[in-house]
Amino acid sequence: MATYEQAERALEAFYARDHGAIADFGRSILLTHGARAERAAILLHGMSASPAQFRQFSQELYERGYNVFVPRLPRHGHADRMTTALAGLQAPALKNTTLQAIEIGRGLGERLTLIGFSLGGLLAAWAAQYHRVDCVMSIAPFLGVSWVPRHFAAVLAPLALRLPNRFPWWDPIQRERQMPAHGYPRYSTHALAQAYSIAHDLLHDAIAHAPRAKQILLITNARESTISNPSVRLLMMRWQKHAAPVRRYEFTDLPFSHDIIEPLRAGGRHVAVVYPKLHELLEQ
Question: Is the backbone peptide bond immediately before 180 cis, with ω within 30 degrees of 0?
Fold first, then answer.
């Protein structure tokens, strides 16, 4: 069992990876009560976002007694929002960062909850499959794109890695003006393909092997605009065949959207609905 002191030493090494190109808002967030707590939470942000995406929710968890760590995922959090750093994102680096964060979390609390959104939701689901975690909450996990059938995605993702990288805009109208400022307005096709490789392996391995997490919560939006809800349901069904402790909650009262975690979107209307429900589910 990791100790609080070991977690502190691991955090020092984690912070040492930050360099001059990382913005203040892009750095990892740590909120602790100064000692090992009964509960700890690790929060994993989405693709092209930064730890600031979870600033409000991490504070709410802290006020509920959690020790909280929000790690910066590799190649995220740069001050230059037009950076091309995401082009070099690799699946092994994402997995390693997740595992390092989990080890830190085990030192921060007796009971560890791993929470992730979108890309972070994928990493949380991946951790649930392969590693012992007390509770995993995977919010709108990236297991595929809503407008690309899963069997096509299995072909398109490897193809994308063989083609030159591209940087499409998240919002082709707002382009570089898209807010919030603590995220990139573009994504990398190579980074997306790397993420999909994790999703593909996870969905495949879930056929034969039960997840190792003690409790798993899958959270979706019925009016999801980006990720593939059918793929989330498929993962759940494959886990359920192993009698895994997994359940799903779907928001039916949210508008057509993907980022239901960021308080600076939609005037905070999303999180006014989402955050209380997430706390309720975690308490259950």
Answer: yes
Show pLDDT as tens, one digit a residue, over the chain (284 residues). 789 999 999 998 888 888 889 999 899 999 999 999 999 999 999 999 999 999 999 999 999 999 999 999 999 999 999 999 999 999 999 999 999 999 999 999 999 999 999 999 999 999 999 999 999 999 999 999 877 767 766 777 788 888 999 999 988 998 998 889 999 999 999 999 999 999 999 999 999 999 999 999 999 999 999 999 999 999 999 999 999 999 999 999 999 999 999 999 877 789 999 999 999 999 98
Instruction: Show me where the domains of the chain are located.
Output: 4-283
Q: What are the C-alpha distances in Å from 139 to residues 159, 188, 255? A: 27, 21, 16
Instruction: Considering the domain delimited by 4-283, tell me its CATH architecture.
Output: 3-Layer(aba) Sandwich (3.40)
DSSP 34: S
pTM: 0.96
Residue with structure tokens 């192993």? 242
